[in-house]
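ping. complex inputs:
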Amino acid sequence: MLRHRKIGEADRILTIFSAEQGKFDVIAKGVRRPTSRKSGHLEELSRTSLLLAQGRTLDVITQCEVIESLAALRGDLERLSAGFYLAELVDRFSAERQENLAIYKLLLECLRGLETGGAAAATLRYFEVQLLSYSGFQPQLRVCASCRGAIEAVVNSFSSSAGGVVCGNCRVEEGALLPLSVNGLKVMRLLQTGSYVDALRLRATPALTSELEEHLRRYLRHVLEHEVRSGEFLRSVRSLRPAHDEAAEVVVL
Amino acid sequence: MTQRPGSGWTDSNSTAAPVARLIDQFNRLPGVGPKSAQRLAYHILRIPSEEAEALASAIVEVKQRIILCSTCQNLSDLDPCSICQNESRDRTTICVVEEPLDILAFERTRSFKGVYHVLHGVISPMDGVGPDDLKVRELLSRLSDGQVNEVILATNPTLEGDATAMYLDRLIAPTGVQVTRLARGLPVGADLEYADEVTLTRALEGRGKV
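pong. complex structure:
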């Protein structure tokens, strides 16, 4: 379940993401009533088995049973916010009724990771890079996205409009360039080619974490032509937290 | 047949313009489709003029006179509202709800004697609804005088409701005011066989002596 909205007196329209059919809307009748037998099985971010009856405009849920409720997410504000963020990204990148099993598995893997205590920042960055790849917007990180020349192990730049790392010799239009550190490029490459387990093993300094987040936030905004709304809430939740321990170093496998 | 934006179809050839406009207005109401709008419009035509005028003036009056209570943000024709003015209410306990209708549900129980605060929505990150879009600042300012002992977070038991409750808890905790959440579990009349794992877990956690 990606999201829901109210309709009528007691119904909801759910946006679901299916392994077989991709993203589509269904209607759950009467689920907002306290005595609804279905409501607890149709929470957002849960994985549920559905029996649908074909409707004229929307399919109707006739039976449902939750398979994975990911209940631990509900008790942690940071993880829940991260879960909303992942769901919104899938919603924004997915077209109606287009199967994408890779994205389904990615979403499941990362939601499970968040639920079991995986580092939220690493999970989100890994998810963003992988989702961009699966959606056809993989950033170019091996050669200069502008001139296709070699990328040296120095501070380069990241350009959303060029679609990746840009070498020092190339100029991109004003405002598009953001410095990309050597470690930042290494980590982005790892997130692109490595596994989720690899991503969770990373230990990044707060400065590197912020750098990666900012590069990907700008790139996502460029691709989607809009800010990811739940990202704003994520940042406001983070501002409520006590400061984290500053001492850490990057370990790149 | 002509189509006006947002109004559905009206047959401008066979429907008098005032009736067509009335149907169009009813059609804009939530949950009212074209057929219902037509039935409502023709009902208005059949009722006595006094009844139609009473309906029209009630609609105008509610828009002119109903305001938000400056204390609890509930819909009211008085400021402060009747609940906030009521001296017999326990002002040390605030029950925070999402919408004004939720207050009606609590008042029907006749068991809650505290006061309320209406957020007018819930945090919904994917829809871009954040804490600044709700009446959160107004809630925090009510806690600053040290008179409040407990805030009950009575947002709906949905993910957005939980996110809102947890966010408010973080904001309120530094004030020293006790923050509680409504109990969860099985609704009266429910069938265990159909209960989901989260509900059953919560019900088990909140079990008590018979």
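The domain at 2-65 of chain B is CATH 1.10.8.420 (Helicase, Ruva Protein; domain 3).
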